[in-house]
Queue: 3 jobs
Job 1
Amino acid sequence: MRTQIGIIGAGPAGLFLAHLLHRVGIGAINLESRSRADVESTIRAGVLEHWVVELMNELGIGERMMAEAHFHTGITLQWNGARHHLDIEGLTNGKRVAVYPQHEVLKDLIAARLSHGGEIVFDVGDTAIRGIDTQTPAIAFRRDRTGDLETLHCDYVIGADGFHGPGRQAIPRGHRTEYQKVYPFGWLGILTEAPLSWHELIYANQGDGFALLSTRSPDVQRMYIQCDPTDDIAAWSDARIWEQLHARLGTSDGWALTEGRIFQKGIIPLRSFVCEPMQYGRLFLAGDAAHIVPPTGAKGLNLAVADVMVLSRALGARYARNSQEGLDRYSEVCLRRIWKGERFSWFMTTMLHRNHDESDFERRIHFADLDLIRTLDAAARSVAENYVGLPFDA
Ligand code: RFL
Ligand code: PHB
């Protein structure tokens, strides 16, 4: 098999890239280790930055999103029983975010890609990257996990294979530096059959720490609470989860969180991670393969799409004008945005969680940060601009 761009992964990074390349006439094939059904049903991110919504529309894949997403003009911050509405639209000259689940984005990307004649090979096994320091790189893989070994020959290999994929490991150890922070807390996330309790997302730091009230549809709500990342989910009965949600989201003005049947629950660890550089020879990393953020800033998917915007422009220039400059600068350009995303995600995480390793002094500082956002326009604007997505050349 041969294509111009061999992409490992059919997550947000890999699929947006295939669409962006198609738009400039460059061929690509995605190799994905999971099944289509699995990719289309895994619950992950929820929030799309303003420009990602616009990009979906430009690519002609925004129709279902425009009909089904919740568009939010603000978020609510809550601490010590009081709520503060952050007017994102007012602070950013009219920008909004969309709450539209990642797996719905992936369904739209996959359906459109296949209808354009694009190729996505699901269920591949034994993916192995070859010859990235030569002019003729390739990806070896097996169809249906155990089929004969096949080779996808290509001009460039893209590691859009998430945090655990082989892409990053293909950069020799001595050629990459990894920066990491592991947080002493995780998130317990639930899906519940309940109506909306509040008109926008609530990010709270109250009682035993963080809680997030998000949504999926008028009848299904997504909620998270901070927990010990080593907790066994079996230790969290539904009653205990509701008790903590009420304690962390409760107010004194009579508002009440509406409970429902919990039909999905799980615990994820929180980490920050960056690999520099994000390229080696003819291999380029994009998305979670190169960087991870804790979900508190809702940045992970959005940073993945930002990477492939930069990469598709660089590859476009390479094929149209034989210009190598964009590819040479790919990592440097992406990392400027990524480190700001890392900073914002770390800031939101630190400010909104209760860290038992920290002193009461530091906890007071986090409340002061929240109060600064409530009272100082410049602080509020900074959070709002980061939340909707920074301008590209910032
Ligand atoms: P993905 O989505 O992990 O996709 C990588 C794909 O590569 C495949 N793969 C392989 N394929 C072939 N051969 C191999 N050897 C392979 N190894 C792996 C995998 O099966 C997979 O399909 O990475 P990508 O594309 O970089 O996208 C990143 C995002 O998925 C991630 O950053 C977000 O989900 C993070 N995130 C959020 N991001 C946001 O922008 N807004 C949010 O509101 C938000 N909330 C979240 C989140 C992540 C969460 N979890 C579960 C970590 C909330 C949560 C709870
Ligand atoms: C979600 O709805 O899953 C979600 C929303 C906002 C975040 C993280 C996750 O910051």
Job 2
Amino acid sequence: MREELLAFVSERGTLLEPDAVEFLLVQRDPIAELDGFLRSCPETPFVVTLEDIRHAGEIAQQALRPRTPLDLRPVAVVATPSASFRRLGEKAADGHPDVRILRDITGRSTCEGTLEDFTRYFRHRFQVLRGMLRQRRELAGAQDIAKARRSTREVRIIGMVADIRTTKNGHRILELEDELERIAVLLPAESAVAQEPVVSDEVLGVVGTVNAKGLVIAASLVRPDLPTAKPFPGTLGHARVAFMSDIHVGSRTFLEEKWSKVSEWLGGADEVARSIRYLVVSGDVVDGIGVYPRQDEELTIDDIYGQYEALARMIAALPDRLAVVMLPGNHDAVRPAEPQPAFPMSIQKLFDSNVIFAGNPSLLSLEGVRVLAYHGRSMDDLVSAIPGLSYQRPLDGMKAMLRLRHLAPIYGGKTPIAPEAEDHLIIDEIPDIFVTGHVHAVGVDQYRGVVLVNSSTWQAQTPYQKMRNIDPTPARLPIVDLGTGQAIIREF
Ligand code: D5M
Ligand code: FE
Ligand code: ZN
């Protein structure tokens, strides 16, 4: 495809930035995509950039939307479809699927894991998140740590959390680092700031005063967070997207009967089922091989390709109108370090052409609605670091990710992170829908206008989960309306 694309480019007398080439190559029809963009230009540009192409798709979508602020509808979350949810749905087969992968790591990984790579990775993380924090009114005029250290008035600093400890008097002390210096920040035991959860390696702002010993006494902590609620963008129509993850095909505990039920329902006459045009599958699609000790004792299919072949048959049996987007998780056959690339060709070719493969995480566009999909491995680290978080309440963990504007803020825990040149786990663009899996729970909610989905599992409790008291909520299908952002969960 690469050669065909480049031939097309030279035939049209323009140039394509390397990033734009990679971006196009992961789209469904790279040439049609580029052709569409070139047609929208009054004259052929000298060079086409990644930004040009990304934005072209969005502008086309926006042009289709009505100008009246139908956009201001609140996001409602309900457990059973109301009569209006049923009635509003459009027959998904009546429209063409429109899926774009706006951003993921596939084909762009550059890191080798050297020390320089790590330094560069963390510098990038720091700089981008500092940029976001500087937009916050509370941090206007924030100073470098070196300068703040000498200040006698109120200081505002931004740093990455290098260490967190508690003193014997119950105060907490953070070591905060910027590019040049490090400073200790005291969260006094009796103050409200001491109650706020802080995790290692997050980038935050501190407003406080410096005492005689050069210690910052914090008055408040500032997170990059999301700006106040934004409206759900909303498509003109009411096509729906359903979410799944953690199918774990090949495991003894894979719930075959539940799968038959959901598969039958999706292919049946139910109005809501027929309104589902997209299915996003966020990782752990098979159980894998050698993922944990003595896994072979818990497998019904002990060949990795055999597992993907079985899944491919299951997906092929779903109705043709469904455009399926599939990303990997920690049980899948790609590198475990995040960001993970899409499945290799040897796996992709087992599936029908209605399946689109994306990396973990990836930012997708479904008819212009932006979906941030992430398997959710970092939840393991967040649950151990933040008091009150639990596997049963993954939506709280997702809100924490949005507040910190990072999918995997804690480095060096259970979530392996590849030191790419840029930190792809930063939540840079604010999505309209944010979905995670991994914890085998389910839920829908919203945070500041972002619809949150945790996408259940199709695996029963495993012996390991039983030992750890993790009680999964399998066989639930969250469904979101792309017109309104309204979300429901269907149980099978
Ligand atoms: O993870 C499924 C669930 O089990 C999820 O809640 C995490 C938990 N889990 C799995 N393995 C571990 C380890 N090693 N430590 C802590 N928690 C774990 P899955 O990715 O499907 O195996
Ligand atoms: Fe899983
Ligand atoms: Zn997982």
Job 3
Amino acid sequence: MIQYIETFLVDVPTIRPHKLSVATMHTQTLVLVRVRCADGIEGWGEATTIGGLAYGEESPESIKTNIDTYFAPLLLGMEASQVARAMAKIRKAIQGNRFAKCAIETALLDAQARRLGVPLSELLGGRVRDELPVAWTLASGDTAKDIAEAEQMLELRRHRIFKLKIGLRDVMDDVAHVLEIKRALGQRASVRVDVNQAWSEMDAVRGIAALEAGGVDLIEQPVKAGNHGAMARLKQRFDVAIMADEALHGPDDALALARADAADVYAVKITQSGGLLPALEVATVARLAGVGLYGGTMLEGGIGTAATAHVCSTFAELAWGTELFGPLLLTQELLREPLVYRDFMLQVPSGRGLGVEIDTDKLQVMRRK
Ligand code: MUC
Ligand code: MG
């Protein structure tokens, strides 16, 4: 039986400012959920977002309030092992709130996988891989610093896929910044850009033509999320891969984008999808429509990152890898044992449930009071 649900906000400074077109992050606010069950088993989930309300329509504070006020009363007393039933109740009674739903579903699935003694991936159809390629985002706002950071990551054998955050400056200034980095790294790395919706369609035509010619491999969310028409025209016009990110709020969007032939690649995010099972549905739509897969992040800490890793480990094809580096952007680790990054890959945890444990003493010290 589901006995107790607790939520925590934890403000963690980032290792350097992280500049996106929608926000500059100096800290990340982790939203963590603990579900305690009557059999003594507990599960953890995470609903971290980016930049308060700058990126999505749920803030850390609203997620906490909504789980405490509306989700928890619906769930308390329900049979903890019946995760699908619990989530059906939540999805029926609560509109929107995809991030909060994701955290709750993660915690319930974590608890159930622990109960059954299996890694979470095995409740999601089963893993076909134990490690995932992992990109790093260069977003210091300074070209020379970004190049130095990339060189360091290559040297450490931690990342050889780099995503550059652009869209704040004039299109051609951004292009010059990206191409300088691509020239410095050459064939040693895959260089990709994320515009976070900042361009008009005309900006995108100019920008993508120059980026494609300069050897950039992928263009993420160049235009507004709702502009499927522009995404489809850009996909038609250019050979370089066009990825949908903010345009994807779960399986319905995945289907609409597929029908519009509006993206070459989907960034699968468990929070944006509204949970782990909806994220699997997004991936299924992609597979059926011939769209490539990429494991996306909302810069979560260890819990959300591990949960996404379990999801991605079940994908037969993962052509574009993942960007599951969230914990590495943070100055503090809340897991007892950090996730393992080695040889350009994230190791998918193999223990029970999520396969990671929260350091609850540290959490008590660090949680927002
Ligand atoms: C996004 O839009 O993809 C993912 C990596 C990163 O640096 O920012 C996020 C959000
Ligand atoms: Mg993105």
